Amino acid sequence: MARGFNKVILMGNLARDPEIRYTVEKRAWARFTVAVGYSWKNRAGEFQEGADFIPVIAWGPLAERCGRYLRKGSGVLVEGRIRVRSYEARDGSGRKYATDVEASDVTFVGPKRSSDSDSFGSPAASQRGFADDADFGKSIREKGFGDEDEEFPTDFAEAFGKDDGDDEDSDIPF
Fold first, then answer.
1. CB of 55 within 8 A of CB of 100?
2. Average pLDDT over every residue of 66-70
3. What class does CATH assign to 8-160?
4. Where in the chain are the domains?
5. pTM assigned to the model
């Protein structure tokens, strides 16, 4: 069978709090939904907005971290793969299929929250492992990384050095 490629990257906000469960072998798994917004122009030329609600499953320590730190509305960047599962319906109506994203990494993005006592900006949250960082929501340039006047190379050869022609793989067409 030919080798395939299955990679998904999502960035959005949690539509609800993660649901944590454990397998019989006591392995943690978390289920949550990521709302990913999009916009388009209708026939009248007006912008419309919508959102896709994508189910995500995380396993093991990643699932426990998601359950501990994420709440409804949290910004996340999810990397993983699409997974299609099938099962027999309990009511005997036949085979059912479910499609979701199996997360390999979840990055918590966005500013700290401090509206309620158990959110990211609270003392309880900092005891759970969040550093008290005043720069958390600032951009890279605001933190002092990179210059406004710095020019970035626009050419691959310029960025990674000129090709000296001595490459042993030079007969590869790509």
1. yes
2. 93
3. mainly beta
4. 8-160
5. 0.61
